[in-house]
């Protein structure tokens, strides 16, 4: 994923992982793709379509939609969203997004 970001950050408009074989998807934050997706969205300003097959947390979904200014289409599997926050939440981000605890 890092190679994709460094090579195509000025040209990437669509990112989707399709026709991948079924595999075990870890639930631990450090083993998932959450931080790589956030880096992708922040480094590629022209991305307008994002399709995610791996498991991500709801906080990551919210941060992805907030960080990607040109994102028009965002596809994610319903059963791939984890309903818990499993990573450290920065208090400045919470204040900036106007999220009330």
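^ Assign residues to that structure.
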């Amino acid at each position: 994923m890092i190679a994709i970001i460094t090579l195509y950050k000025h040209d990437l408009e669509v990112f989707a992982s399709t026709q991948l074989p079924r595999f075990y998807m870890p639930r631990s934050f450090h083993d998932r793709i959450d931080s790589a997706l956030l880096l992708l969205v922040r480094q590629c300003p022209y991305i307008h379509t994002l399709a995610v097959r791996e498991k991500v947390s709801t906080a990551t979904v919210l941060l992805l939609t907030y960080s990607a200014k040109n994102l028009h289409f965002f596809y994610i599997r319903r059963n791939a969203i984890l309903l818990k926050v499993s990573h450290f939440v920065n208090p400045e981000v919470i204040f900036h997004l106007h999220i009330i605890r």
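The mean pLDDT is 79.
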